[in-house]
Write a structure and sequence with these properties.
Blueprint lengths: L1 E11 L2 H30 L7 H14 L8 H26 L19 E4 L6 E6 L2 E6 L3 E5 L8 E10 L2 E11 L10 E6 L5 E3 L4 E2 L4 H18 L5 H33 L5 E5 L3 H4 L3 H10 L1 H14 L3 E5 L27 E3 L6 E3 H14 L16 H4 L17
Parallel strand pairs: 8-11, 11-12
Antiparallel strand pairs: 1-5, 1-7, 2-6, 3-4, 4-5, 6-7, 8-9, 9-10, 13-14
Helix pairs in contact: 1-2, 1-3, 2-3, 4-5, 5-8
Length: about 425
């Protein structure tokens, strides 16, 4: 099967190259906003369908108005068009979900400030970039920018498809995406396991294993709050405010890296523990976060990130990750199937499940994991593997954006 992977490496541009990268980031942000502005004007004029042909016309107009955008690599400009198309596609998707009663914000595409536009992409490896060897160093050459040292801490396996240059917390990174054909081993599904994701324990399996998640965000809370206050006090546009922003970004980056490292290690442990498939809830995080008392904890838990990581690791090992309907997984008895209703339903603070029908008494999270395993084995099967690609498939983004009906929203219980 064909898999897409991303490799992220630190790069060390000198002062001249830093200015070149920063200039292109600023140009890309301005180009994005101008392109969005023209598409919005067309949308308001009555043409609600946005196509690549229409965006191509807008690009020609923008370049005729100001030649400075020619400094952006041609395919980088093309990738910005794909970003706009993706934003509209997501907008129309949310519109039709809202029409069906789903509690989501339509979220019309928004203009981006320079603080929110931190990457430029070279969508094809056609000579626009290359990795070269210079003595004992590796150098990354980028068309129009120049050569800079890159820290290749691991080999890149597969054919490089795209390069993204990203600026984050004052540092610069090169992110390569590759596609390669791998032959996943065939694993007989003899030892499936259900996994319950929670706030009390990060995961609980149907086999009784519990894993607590280290509180990375909570440990950084004081430092994050300190730098947020400093940013609020300092003058907008000042160098001192920009430095405070970099400090805040570094605090968030460290916590995010720790969380991601934890997710990778846990996924590896599960894949190598002798299980042959994994049953998980098909969670709707944004809907769950409507509960304001739990929203911060839900987002800090990073459930979606963990499920994506588990999915691609499991599928590469020839295993399945099966998503099941999350409705009433904490209220259903894993032994007899009785579902608690009315005053009998468990509250969030109740950690023990007791079935009034068959007398089963056990930890509520382990019971929920067993319910998911039971539902998966009854036939609710399908790969959970998903995620945003660096460049959307052309056939998908170029199709006309229309609204139609979708399935009704499932009720989600914790």
């Amino acid at each position: 099967m064909e898999v897409t992977r991303a490799y992220k490496f630190r790069i060390y541009p000198d002062v001249k190259r830093q200015k070149e990268i920063d200039e292109r980031l600023a140009l890309a942000q301005q180009f994005y906003n101008k392109l969005l502005e023209k598409s919005i004007q067309a949308y308001k004029s009555g043409n609600g369908k946005i196509s690549m042909a229409q965006l191509n016309r807008f690009v020609k107009e923008i370049i005729q108005e100001d030649k400075k955008y020619l400094k952006l690599y041609s395919q980088t400009r093309c990738e910005i068009e794909y970003r706009i198309l993706k934003a509209y596609r997501n907008f129309f998707r949310r519109v039709k979900e809202k029409k069906e009663g789903k509690k989501v914000k339509a979220g019309f595409p928004r203009f981006k400030s320079l603080d929110r536009y931190k990457s430029i992409t070279y969508p094809q490896d056609n000579g626009s970039f290359s990795i070269e060897k210079e003595r004992k160093k590796r150098m990354l050459r980028i068309s129009g920018i120049g050569r800079m040292q890159i820290e290749l801490h691991r080999p890149i396996e597969g054919k490089i498809k795209t390069l993204t240059i990203k600026k984050k917390a004052g540092g610069y990174y090169a992110i390569f995406t590759i596609k390669e054909e791998i032959e996943a081993p065939k694993v007989e599904d003899t030892n499936p396991v259900g996994i319950d994701l929670g706030l009390h324990s990060f995961i609980t399996t149907s086999s009784g294993m519990k894993v607590e998640k280290p509180k990375f965000i909570e440990r950084k809370a004081k430092h994050i709050a300190k730098w947020q206050k400093k940013i609020a006090r300092r003058k907008k546009g000042s160098k001192r405010r920009d430095k405070a922003k970099q400090h805040l970004q570094k605090e968030w980056e460290q916590a995010t890296n720790q969380s991601e490292d934890f997710a990778h290690k846990l996924a590896n442990k599960l894949v190598n523990s002798g299980f042959t498939s994994f049953a998980v809830e098909d969670l709707h995080i944004q809907i769950m976060a409507k509960n304001h008392s739990l929203a911060e904890a839900i987002y800090a838990a990073s459930w979606n990130k963990f499920l994506r990581i588990l999915s691609y690791k499991a599928e590469s090992a020839g295993m399945k990750v099966i998503k099941v309907d999350p409705r009433d997984t904490t209220q259903e008895c894993s032994r007899c199937g009785h579902i608690k209703t009315g005053d009998e339903r468990l509250g969030l603070s109740e950690r023990l499940y007791h079935c009034s029908a068959c007398g089963l008494t056990m930890d509520r999270d382990e019971n929920a994991a067993r319910v998911m395993l039971k539902r998966a084995t009854l036939g609710q099967r399908g790969s959970y593997a998903q995620g945003e690609s660096v460049r959307p498939q052309q056939e998908a983004v170029l199709e006309e954006l229309r609204t139609d009906k979708i399935h009704p929203l499932h009720e989600v219980s914790l």
